[in-house]
Amino acid sequence: MTKIELTRIPFIKNALKSRYPQLAVFIVMLIGYIFAILAGLIGTPVGSHNFSIVFVWIAWWAILILVAVPFFGRGWCAVCPIPLPGEWLQRGAVLSPPDKRPKWLNLRVPKMFRNIWLQNISFLLLALFSSVLLTTPNITGIILAAMLFAAMGLSIVFERRAFCRYLCPVGGFIGLYSQTAPIELRIKDKQVCVTCEGKPCYNGSPAGYGCPWDVFPGGLTSSLSERKYYCSKN
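-> C-alpha cells emitted (234 positions)
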C-alpha cells in the first residue's frame, strides 16, 4: 500500500505546526464536557432526553467507534478535554512552556502501575454498569466529573498525562483498535532524531512544551509503541 505524507499538504502542515487550531478545539470540547456534567447533575432525570446521556453515550461513543478510531486512530486523544485543566495546572501555562522548576510534585508513576491493567479495569467497570450509565443522568454526570478531577489530581502528583496513559478507560480501547487506522504518526529519518540535541519535541524548549504523552517520536513503530517505548526506557 502506497503511503501518503500528509505534511506535504501546506494546509495540514500549517495546522499541525500551529498550536492555536488545537487550542480552539480544546476549548470547545471542554465547554461541551462541562455542560455534559452539569446536564447530568441538574438536567432532566429522563435518560433519553438528557443531554449528557445522548451526547456522551450515544452520539460521541458512536462517532468514536465508527469514525474517529477507524480513520484517525489516536486522533481523539489529541483533542480530548479531560486532561486539559490538569495539564494547564501542571505546566502553569496554557501554550507557553513550563518553568524549569516544576510547580507541583512531578513524580514518576510507580513502576507497578505502568501497564494497561488499570485502564482495562476501569473500562470493564464502565461496561458492567453501562445499563445504569445509559439510564441515569446523575451517575453519568458524577462519572464525567470524577474523570476530570482524577486527571487533575494525577497531574498535580505525577508528571505528564498519567491519567491518560494509565487510567483512562477509553485509552486502552483506542490504542488497541487504532492499529487498523489508515493515519499514523511516524518520523521521516531516524538519524535526525538520534543526532538531535536536547530532543525538544520530547523535553520541550523555550518555543513550547514537550510531548505531554511522554513519547519520543524516534521510538514510534506502531500506534501502541508509545507505551512500549515508555516501558522500555524505565
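The two ends are 35 Å apart (CA to CA).
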